[in-house]
Amino acid sequence: MLRPVKFLWSLVVASWPIIVAHVHESLLRLRRYEFAEIISDLSSFSFRWIMRCVQLLVFAILLLSSASAIYGGFYYLIMPAKVLQRPLFFDYGVHSDFAQLSAESPYVSSNRVHLPIAQLELTTGENGRDQWHYADAVEVSETKSLPLTHLTKYDVVLDFEFAQTPVNEHIGMFMVRTQALGEGKTPLATSARPTFVRTSHWLVDLVAQFVWIVPTLTLGYDAALTQHRTLVVMNGFEERRVRAVEEIYVELSHPRVQIVSASVSILAQLSGLRYLMYHWFLTTAIVATLNIALVQVFWCFVLYLYITFPTLHGVDVIPTDDDQEQLLPDEPKEHDSADDMLDEDDDDGPQVYESELILPPTPKESVRQRRAPPTQVPVS
């Protein structure tokens, strides 16, 4: 009795390592399979979400691009074109006398100190000469063209790009004097506006130079630090033919101001929505672009519903009360009496007389009628 038990026990003990190895291998395979399934699920889930994010990103880019294009077209349609936008070039003259002065001297326009000035003729047209003249010996036949419209109000705007250098920062506040000259250089309007170049922190300058060093090295872009200034020197100037503007004269009150570029713009005076779109360009552009994008999203959603909404083919639709009334035949009108009907018949056509046909009375069923005797045929 004990020998079979011992044999079975010895068999179990001998095969136990193999059983353990098989179980361990099965657990490892199960873990690898579960891990592979988890990775597969996560990869498919992440791939789907990445594709959705890419689709949303592409849709948002196309939406904002189209909205920006629509706003840009609307902006150029509603905004009046600039009547004049021309560059300004300042004449600094010779400053040898100023450099030899030991004491400070008032900065006035004289033979000793030459202040930077710019004179721009407007009679040469919108794309005319930029501050140059023909020599006296050259014969030129030119016709004056006045760019401004009679009895229209304009704003004269000066745009400066000042170099951010220690020289400009040391100058501090200086004046920009502007004159609108008429025929024979007669002053029509004069203005003076103060401006200066701000002193920036060294950390801001270092970061700005580090940011602009890439386009400077790769594209050859001039990344010198500048400060932009916009001065409305004249607002609401009314143009008239009897005193038409022919020249713009600009003068700086300091001879050492360093200017990178300058330009003058003459605009028709704006009001209402056009004023906001021009003077608050970034704010109005963002608000208008977002509103246009929302309208586009709404119509895209309506189009999506129209395309994907199932159509009803072969389905009986219960007609409404109005449809039933239209489908029913016209009922005859009720007449108050027979005379009304006769009157209507008389109106429609000639009068017709009716007669009653008198027939003999029908015999009763109980009365037997005689039949005619059959005809006898003689036999020959």
UniProtKB/TrEMBL annotation:
**Localization, UniProt:** Endoplasmic reticulum membrane
Question: Which GO annotations describe the biological process of this protein?
Answer: lipid droplet formation; lipid metabolic process
Task: Specify the protein's topology with respect to the membrane.
Answer: Multi-pass membrane protein
List each coiled-coil range.
none
The yes or no answer to whether the keyword Transmembrane is present is yes
Offer one Pfam family short name for this entry: Seipin
Give the matching InterPro entries: Seipin
Question: What are the annotated GO cellular component locations?
Answer: endoplasmic reticulum membrane
List all Acidic residues biased stretches: 339-349
TM annotation in the entry:
49-78, 280-307
Q: Where is this region: Disordered?
A: 322-380
The record's keywords, sorted A to Z, are: Endoplasmic reticulum, Lipid metabolism, Membrane, Transmembrane, Transmembrane helix
| Protein name (database record) | Seipin
